[in-house]
Design goal:
4-stranded parallel beta sheet, alpha/beta
Length: 304
């Protein structure tokens, strides 16, 4: 083998080493929980960006040019749906000009479409506040529903990136096994919470209550998304005497003022719940989200 031939071979090998084996599927996730789930199911096959953080109200996001640019480059947009992002996602989709991720296309995935939704309104009246016609959108507070979404999302990843379908299927199997084991563990840990009476700051936790058997006695907001007045808080206080609630729950992104008022005036502990991945230091991934949530609830129960 002469020097020129060897040089050609080395050059060809260098090209092979520097060219990636595949182009990662670009996933734009509206909320941290779906970004975390996409990474669990896709691993190195996906490149995930997340539009919001755990400390932002997902109802109230600005459709900034940077988000439009990310949507324009996405192969798959993964959001909650059920009108959670109705104030900003349609603007991103329209301004992106990305035909692949428009509603009805395979590149548009709404997690809430794949689970049974709660709090469906009997009548739609926008004067009642931030009411969602499609039901309560906060499905990520129940790990059972996340498991259902995982199966649907994996199928969509396999559809969009069929060359790696078997790899996605393998990752789904691994995730589902670990997830079901975790749900069994969480359900055992959470047994003392069944039947415990609580107050919610916002109508955020109906799916968690459905899972754990917690009983919601009152909601501090008079209407969804409307801050409570002093008079309303006094009315709530008067309504929760018997049985007395053991804690008030608020999401990490929420101002805890109302929950703290109830703590001062009725001795009901205010408990911050991570609500999504990144909401607390302990909620670094989907598993940590529920580990930390249960730890906070059980600690508050023991102290109340």
């Amino acid at each position: 083998m002469n020097q020129r031939t060897l040089s050609h071979i080395l050059a060809a090998l260098l090209v092979l080493l520097t060219v990636p084996a595949h182009a990662a599927l670009r996933v734009f996730a509206c909320e941290p929980e779906w970004g975390a789930l996409a990474r669990e199911l896709g691993g190195d096959l996906v490149d995930v960006t997340v539009a919001t953080s755990a400390l932002q109200d997902p109802h109230q996001i600005q459709a900034k040019p940077s988000l439009v640019a990310r949507t324009r480059n996405a192969d798959l947009v993964v959001c909650t749906g059920a009108e959670l992002e109705v104030g900003w996602l349609p603007v991103l989709l329209q301004q992106s000009g990305n035909a692949k991720v428009q509603p009805g296309q395979p590149g548009n995935f709404a997690a809430a479409d794949f689970v049974r939704k709660l709090d469906l309104p009997n009548q739609l009246d926008r004067s009642q506040g931030d009411v969602h016609a499609a039901g309560n959108p906060h499905i990520q507070t129940d790990p059972r529903r996340i498991g259902q979404v995982a199966m649907a999302l994996s199928a969509r990843l396999q559809q969009l990136d069929s060359a790696h379908a078997s790899a996605y299927a393998t990752r789904l199997k691994d995730f589902s096994q670990r997830w079901q084991q975790a749900i069994s563990r969480w359900s055992l840990q959470a047994a003392p919470l069944k039947g415990v009476v609580v107050v919610s700051q916002h109508k955020s936790f109906v799916y968690m209550y459905d899972w754990l058997g917690l009983v919601e006695a009152a909601v501090l907001e008079p209407k969804p998304g409307v801050e409570p007045s002093a008079a309303h808080l006094q009315a709530v206080l008067a309504s929760i005497k018997n049985p007395a609630p053991r804690m008030t729950l608020y999401a990490a992104y929420q101002d805890p003022k109302a929950a703290q008022w109830l703590n001062r005036n009725a001795g009901v502990p205010a408990v911050k719940v991570p609500f999504t991945v990144g909401g607390t230091d302990g909620a670094k991934d989907l598993f940590g989200l529920f580990d930390d949530t249960l730890s906070r609830l059980l600690t508050a129960l023991a102290r109340s």
